[in-house]
């Protein structure tokens, strides 16, 4: 899972990136892309690891991407959004703090500005494709009626200055996947507040249509990311922070994308795997290896809560909570799965 971090100049994108990825602040890299991979915190993985004592414990991972340059350009060039078009979702950092030499923050206006730019960038892509389809039609080349219909719906929404994410069916249409529309991507808004302020900004909307919003105190969280575990605990208590920003943002990102985790366990490895909610067992198998999907026979499934209640896998089997499921079984969050396959 890759999340692209976007925002207007001065919003604190780099500070937030450092906080989320626990990276040391770096100067002189504003024009360079930055990538940070962190593990997804999950106490269930820790418990399973203590239970099985495996040689390896592997958490699910999330990747944060901070492009050197994107959006907010007077030329309104849609190519400026190219760096984040392959991201699964976007995190929009919005300035809600005062800084020397800068005007007072206008978070809701800034939020609307970048949302409008995403809509405009997508509209330019749609119009260019529709022009090409019309040119091909005049040359006698047939067009795909479904693609034409979907693009026309996109143009209608975008001309109304409405992001595509507001229509989930349209935003996720397989035929449009190649366009990688930025306004179609799930969006998490991070209001970047001052150290003492943990409230959403007053007035206006907390988030644009079909988006989620939360507060982060970027500078404070950046300092926290550089501390030892003992220092961090004391710091969290002093500022009444329930959990570091990394944990909270990853949790909200998972919910935003509709992601869940299932587990594989054993003496060799305990591992969390990330899939989308409502994923059939046969497709979950492919996340591990394509051969498992190809030779899928059955999925041996035990819910995490049932394992905890039983105390061991063997006892859970005696209690009848270990069950065999077929290809169409929809994997649930926390399922412990052993795939039976033959290639």
TrEMBL record:
Keywords: ATP-binding, Nucleotide-binding. Pfam families: YchF-GTPase_C. PROSITE patterns: TGS (PS51880). One of its GO terms (molecular function) is ATP hydrolysis activity. InterPro entries: Beta-grasp_dom_sf (IPR012675), GTP-bd (IPR006073), P-loop_NTPase (IPR027417), TGS (IPR004095), TGS-like (IPR012676), TGS-like_dom_sf (IPR023192), YchF_C (IPR013029). Residues 258-341 form the TGS domain. One of its GO terms (cellular component) is cytoplasm. Coiled coil: none annotated. It comes from the Bacteria. This is TGS domain-containing protein. It comes from Desulfococcus multivorans DSM 2059.
């Amino acid at each position: 899972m890759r999340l692209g971090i976007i925002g207007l100049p001065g919003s604190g994108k780099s500070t937030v990136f450092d906080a989320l990825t626990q990276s040391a602040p770096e100067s002189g890299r504003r024009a360079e892309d930055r990538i940070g991979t962190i593990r997804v915190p999950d106490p269930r993985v820790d418990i399973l690891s203590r239970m099985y004592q495996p040689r390896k414990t592997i958490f699910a991972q999330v990747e944060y991407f901070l492009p050197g340059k994107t959006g907010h350009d007077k030329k309104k060039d849609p190519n400026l959004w190219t760096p984040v078009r392959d991201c699964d979702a976007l995190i929009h950092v919005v300035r809600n703090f005062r800084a020397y030499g800068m005007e007072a923050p206008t978070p809701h206006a800034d939020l609307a500005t970048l949302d409008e730019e995403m809509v405009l960038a997508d509209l330019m892509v749609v119009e260019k494709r529709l022009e090409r389809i019309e040119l091909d039609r005049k040359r006698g080349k047939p067009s795909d009626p479904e693609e034409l219909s979907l693009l026309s719906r996109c143009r209608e929404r975008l001309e109304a200055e409405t992001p595509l994410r507001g229509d989930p069916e349209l935003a996720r249409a397989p035929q449009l996947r190649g366009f990688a529309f930025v306004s179609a991507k799930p969006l998490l808004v991070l209001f970047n507040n001052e150290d003492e302020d943990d409230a959403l900004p007053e007035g206006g909307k907390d988030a644009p249509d079909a988006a989620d919003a939360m507060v982060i105190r970027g500078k404070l969280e950046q300092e926290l990311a550089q501390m030892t575990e003992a220092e961090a605990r004391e710091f969290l208590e002093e500022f009444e922070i329930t959990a570091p920003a990394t944990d909270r943002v990853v949790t909200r990102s998972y919910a935003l994308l509709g992601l869940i985790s299932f587990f594989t366990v054993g003496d060799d490895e305990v591992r969390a795997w990330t899939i989308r909610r409502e994923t059939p067992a046969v497709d979950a198998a492919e996340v591990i290896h394509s051969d498992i999907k190809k030779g899928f026979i059955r999925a041996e499934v035990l819910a995490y809560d049932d394992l905890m209640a039983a105390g061991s896998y063997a006892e859970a089997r005696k209690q009848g909570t270990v069950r065999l499921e077929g290809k169409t079984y929809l994997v649930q969050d926390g399922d412990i799965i052993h795939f039976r396959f033959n290639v």
